Amino acid sequence: MSECAAQVFTEFSPEKFTCLQEKVADQGIAIDGHQGSASKDGITIAWDYEADSQTLTIQCTAAPFYLSCGTINVTIHNWVDSCS
């Protein structure tokens, strides 16, 4: 599978970012720092958090063929929504 479209979340406060870090840690994915990437079970996500503008960009850059971008993006949205 090729990359999924990047998702951009605005008005994403530092508290929401901390919440997101905790949510994904529960899934075994470490979001360490404001920028980076992490992989688990063949899925790789990249993120860039701009604290000054409170903007978070997340993108799935690799996934197994049996997982669609739609499925992955819904999961990411669920994580983000749970911190709103």
Annotation keywords:
4 strands; TATA-Binding Protein
Strand content is 25-35%
Number of helices: 2
User: Cα distance, first to last residue?
Assistant: 30 Å
User: Got a strand count?
Assistant: 4
Tell me what the CATH architecture is.
2-Layer Sandwich
Q: Within the CATH hierarchy, at the fold level, what is the topology?
A: TATA-Binding Protein
User: How many domain modules?
Assistant: 1
Whole-angstrom Rg: 12 Å
Provide the succession of SSEs. EHEEEH
- Helical content, roughly? 25-40%
> What characterizes the major β-sheet?
4 strands, antiparallel
The low-confidence parts are none
What oligomerization state is this entry in? single chain
Give me the secondary-structure category: alpha+beta
Approximate shape: globular
